[in-house]
Specification:
Strands 5-6-7-3-8-9 form a six-stranded mixed beta sheet, with helices on both faces. A six-stranded mixed beta sheet has the order 14-15-16-12-17-18. About 40% of the residues lie in helices and about 20% in strands. Among the domains are: about 100 residues, no CATH class; about 200 residues, Rossmann fold (3-Layer(aba) Sandwich), CATH 3.40.50.300. The two termini are about 35 Å apart. It is an alpha/beta fold. It is built from 18 helices and 18 strands.
Length: about 525
């Protein structure tokens, strides 16, 4: 299905993959893991044929299904219903249109030629499952959490999370021989994740998946490819087994490296003590030098330990008792309102959690509060001194073609060194500060967007799925930093542990707009919402 040989990949002028060789065969279920920015997404793009390697070869066989980390709408998709887009994964939408044209031509003239053309097209359409396509597409979409009423809407009328589910459904419906999936569980609730894991376990083709969802990696994966500092290392087994094996490798190779360094130091010291003495001792010293050089050439490098970051959000600017007041907000997109007559207020330092199913208007509400969208009705009023910072789940604030420092300067007039220190705090260090932000991985874009929030010195944060794409160490650091921050927040998230760490005071149920006090019992519903 897939073979790579000495594959090298470059991003922003730096090599992120060097001489990687691996193969995938039918039935292989492989997880590609590594820290944010290690090059996982860039490697997957090149393997999928959407980028060129700087070295090595790639051989693919069979039909390819590729889920990007940030699926984009194509011009041909704009006027499609979600159902039609899913069915297009197998080209059956085009086949159906062709069959209809041939049927009309046959009605106009029942010539032998028209009869033969229609019969051949109809037979092919039937063999490819055209007549059962709609039922199969709806079954897959339902498994991913998209009910029939949402599937019949235009793709443009769906939320970002729903569009991602539709794109995933299109790829799964396509019947690929090779699946390349980049963070497929983003925006999926617990039931949809369970359905996807069951689907992947029974999938007969070859699978290569990037995910920070540890449950998915344990349930559906039988091999791990670990990418760090350009090197790809293979481990057999699930993610938990890989973690155990990698820890043992770290311990074993660290001991070997320490013994080698100790022996090199001993021999170098011995050689130095013999120099300038007798001719025989000088020859011995030279032999020892040669031995030291050979040992240095074969010096073992222990696997780097997991990168950890430590974050601290600055104290929010002073603000009055009332931070935000909302009355009667209503929003629709040409049809029935997504939500209507929503009202609430947020006090200084308060944390409000928004709960609702995909399509309930959570993102639409946050966009209105951030000033990026207009409501159909209703008003909002900010308190004295309120400064709003918005984290968009689709990274809408990240501008391709502009480097990271440009993005930081758009939020702050602080000196360049201070801005570089801020992005460095999020693990974005070195020359990456001058890299095109459009080339960043999803996790790096998340970190840049969070760094922009820090630079903006806000006292009300609107957070729309801020933990998507983050590796486990970074997610823990972000959760801890926000948990200790004393400013006000309005939060949308499917991450149970993240929500638990923030301890909201109140919850707003969407789309009905009902307010209630937060309870730990609601955590069971967070992943379902």
């Amino acid at each position: 299905m897939l073979q790579t040989n000495n594959l090298s990949v470059e991003v922003g002028g730096r090599l992120v993959v060097v001489n990687a060789t691996f193969s995938l065969y039918p039935g292989d279920k492989v997880g590609l893991v590594g820290r944010n920015g290690a090059g996982k997404t860039s490697l997957l793009k090149v393997v999928a044929g959407e980028g060129d390697p700087v070295g090595g070869t790639i051989l693919r066989r069979g039909r390819l299904g590729y889920l990007r980390q940030d699926p984009r709408l194509h011009a041909a998709t704009v006027d499609m219903t979600a159902l039609a887009h899913v069915i297009s994964g197998r080209g059956l939408d085009v086949a159906a249109k062709r069959l209809e044209k041939l049927r009309i031509a046959l009605e106009e003239s029942s010539s032998k030629r028209n009869i033969a053309r229609f019969s051949r097209a109809e037979e092919t359409y039937r063999a490819e499952g055209g007549y059962s396509a709609e039922a199969e597409a709806r079954r897959i979409a339902a498994g991913l959490g998209l009910p029939d009423d949402r599937l019949d809407l235009p793709v443009t009328a769906l939320s970002g999370g729903e569009r991602r589910r539709v794109e995933l459904g299109r790829i799964l419906f396509g019947g690929s021989d090779l699946l390349l999936l980049d963070e497929p569980t983003n925006h999926l609730d617990t039931d949809a994740k369970s359905w996807l894991m069951k689907f992947l376990r029974s999938y007969r083709g070859a699978l290569l998946v990037i995910s920070h969802d540890l449950v998915l990696l344990d349930e559906s994966i039988t091999r791990i490819l670990h990418l760090d500092d350009g090197e790809l290392v293979e481990y057999r087994g699930t993610y938990s087994q890989y973690r155990t094996a990698r820890k043992k490798d770290e311990e074993r190779l660290t001991k070997i490296a320490e013994r080698q360094r100790s022996e090199i130091k001993r021999l170098s010291t011995l050689a130095d003590s013999m120099r300038g003495q007798t001719e025989r001792r000088a020859r011995t010293a030279k032999m020892l030098d040669s031995r030291v050089e050979r040992m240095r050439a074969g010096l073992v490098t222990a696997p780097k330990k997991e990168h950890r970051i430590s974050l601290r959000f600055p104290e929010p600017p002073r603000v009055g008792k009332l931070v935000l007041e909302v009355q009667g907000l209503t929003k629709g997109y040409g049809g029935p309102p997504v939500f209507s007559d929503v009202g609430f207020d947020v006090g200084r330092g308060e944390r409000l959690f928004i709960m609702g199913l995909n399509g309930a208007g959570k993102t639409s509400l946050l966009r209105i509060l951030a000033g990026l969208s207009e409501p159909d009705a209703g008003t909002m009023r900010t308190g004295a001194g309120t400064s709003i910072g918005y984290y968009a789940q689709e990274h809408e604030g990240i501008t391709p073609g502009r480097d990271l420092l440009w993005h930081m300067r758009s939020q702050s007039s602080a000196p360049e060194q201070q801005l570089r220190s801020l992005i460095g705090m999020f693990g974005l260090t070195g020359e990456i500060a001058f890299q095109d932000a459009g080339t960043l991985s999803g996790g790096e874009k998340t970190k840049l967007a969070l760094a922009q929030l820090v630079a903006g010195k806000h006292n009300l944060l609107l957070l729309d799925e801020p933990t998507n794409n983050l590796d486990p160490p970074s997610l823990g650091a972000v959760a801890e930093a926000l948990g200790e921050w004393p400013g006000a927040m309005i939060i949308v998230s499917h991450d149970v542990e993240f929500v638990r760490s923030l301890v909201p005071e109140r919850v707003l149920f969407m789309p009905e707009g009902r307010l209630d006090y937060w309870s730990e019992d609601l955590l069971d519903l967070v992943a379902l919402a």
